[in-house]
Amino acid sequence: MPGKILIVDDAAFMRMMLKKILAPTGNDLIEAVDGSDGVSKYKEHKPNLVLLDIVMPNIDGIECLKQIISFDKDAKVVMCSSIGQQTVVNDAIKIGARDFIVKPFDATKVMEVVSKNM
Amino acid sequence: MNDMSEYKEMYAVEAAEHLQSMNDALLSLEKDPKNSETINVMFRAAHTLKGMSATMGYSNIAELTHDMENLMDRVRKNEMVLDTAAIDMLFEVLDTLEKMVEVPENSSQFDISVLVNKMVQLSNGAVAGSPPKEQSPAAEKHEEVIQETHEETVPVNVSDAAEDGTQKTDEKGCAIFNVTVTLHESCVLKSARAAVALRNLSELGDIIETKPSLKDIEDEKFDRIFTVTFSTKEDAKKVEDAVKTTSEVLSVDVKPMDNAGSESLAKKKTEDKACSSDAGRAAVKNVQSVRVGIERLDSLMNLVGELVINKIRLMQIVSDHKLDYLEETLASLNRLTNDLQEEIMATRMVPIDQIFNRFPRMVRDLAKKEGKDIELILEGGDIELDRTVLDEVGDPLVHILRNCVDHGIESPEAREKAGKNRKGKVKLAARREKNYVVIEAQDDGKGMDPKKFRDAAVTKGVMSAEDIAKLTDTEVLNLSFLPGFSTAEKITDVSGRGVGMDVVKTKIEALGGSVRLESKAGEGTDITLKLPLTVAIIHSLMVKVGKDVYAVPITNVVRDLAIKKDMIKTIKGEEVIMMMGEVLPLIRLHDIFSVKSNGSDDMIVVVVERGGSNVGIVVDHVLGQQEVIIKKLDNRLLRGVKGFAGATILGDGNVALILDVGTLI
Predict the structure, then answer these.
(1) Which CATH superfamily is domain A4-94 in?
(2) Pick from B195, B188, B247: which is nearest to B226 by CA?
(3) ipTM
(4) CA distance A26 to chain B (A)
(5) Would you say the pTM of this structure is higher than 0.90?
């Protein structure tokens, strides 16, 4: 059954990349351009899964995660991290992120994480 | 991703944008090298460009931006400052990047080693003596070597213990398993991946201990394998599945713990207890604690609440029917429930240090930014508060401290002129008073000027000049708790936007606490927060209106009065009485709840504090003080209904509503 996936990343390039990878899954793909947009889009669409970038202007991924979790404690959020952001990812998981994927994105891994968490 | 060509155009456009914003940022950093927002812009742009370039496989661009990101991260953390030479060098890097991005396919032909070296040197120079960076190839190789040797020495054996049927269960009927998890070779963030696996496991049961320790796992001091001792009601298959849902897990081995193993574990636990003072054991002590979700503690608290209510009912029945023979049993039941309640409340307690810890840095940074010299004194960090209260009190404290730094403490020059020490003092002290925790924030700054407040109130149209003249200075200062009331002359990014103190007050009062503000112009300001230890149980004054009983949180209650009907006067159609020379507006609960008043001449008024001033609530009877357990009312039930904070169940089984004085009319 197709669901909704929210992609939160300030880089249009990264959003497009993820959309391309996720298109075959048949899910509705929603985009948000920064952390605060991510929070409001989450509230608006209540997606089944969120792919959340960490480094973003306005509010960053961690703050965005906090706000999403406090709005919906069962939110399924997957962090999009880079190598070297271990501590931040650890924090994110403590806050309630379900999983993470590491940039540069490998299509197989992204699909694995998405299918496991949806 | 086989064909990247279709992304090239998009990459080029966005990369150029990021380079532009970095250029702009660098320009303004040249004038103002410490501007944290600009530094952040640089950092983010470098980070994003790195990710994009790595995705496209432009490794040279990724490497340059990676080093740039590292450098900016150091700057961001105040570990180094960008001097002219550094800025020149960064401009040089940007120029090179621009050329590379023009034809990114050829970016690999650029020789970037000189620039990379310069940047690495610069950021390493800032942290002389720090361990080599994790990205350095030497370190990586070393790590791989360790991993390989471990793979040989740690056999991932499939256990036969499962078949021998001696599966050990603990006292709660939980089985104990040793779960060995091997992460996939390609896993990059091993510690974070392990955290996901542990989180998935902890949803099924309790983690007793891990090898290596949780701390080491968090610090990534392990190769791809770790073992978890795990207690659960589920079977091995479920446990295995839980771990397998984690990505990047290569294999999972779940084997039930045999008797010997669990005995030694139990033994180890007692040993730990026996020598817990031994500093060398500090690391082991870590694994003795079990993480429990706050929801579980909430539901425990709720259950105990129910238990207490039923106990009170039982006691009432016993006393009503004079069932003497039950008294002894009931007394011990009473004691046990009280102990249980205290234990659970103690479990929810966390030291206030958890939020105090972040303040020294915050105050230092703010003070630096404002050019002020401030000493922050923290006291009573070991005082414990309920987790829920602590979570809610963090933001208000941040705001209060920011106010202290921004508005309270003067510049060193102004302080000197006023005959004060150049260094301002801000003190944050927590202490326990009976069933409350009091947090006091004091500064020795310029204080608040009641006259300014009076003027501001009139110009803002909050009050007429006539009314404001009637207020005492303290009452006037408490106007700062009104929404949108700020006397700050200029708006800074710290405070002075007119939001703040009202939010502080609302938050604290929502917790059942209170805020008091005292200030003397020229001498400083003193803000006192009085917080309940827990939000689940509150002391209340029980009052009766008509046939119904209501609970008034004791924190709000100032006193109660017995008055005669003829003492009531009317001002502008509002009923008031005079109390010690003060005009006290009256609220008749009879009118609000449409209850017939008994019309007698003698009336009882409960004086409560609301928004810095007092209000009298007219009731029929005051029944006395009692601990009540708050039952949250469903929001759907209370939609649009103000004045109630929740409900509680009384000893006789009846429900009493808890009045929320702040929102009552």
Answers:
(1) Response regulator (3.40.50.2300)
(2) B195
(3) 0.81
(4) 18
(5) no
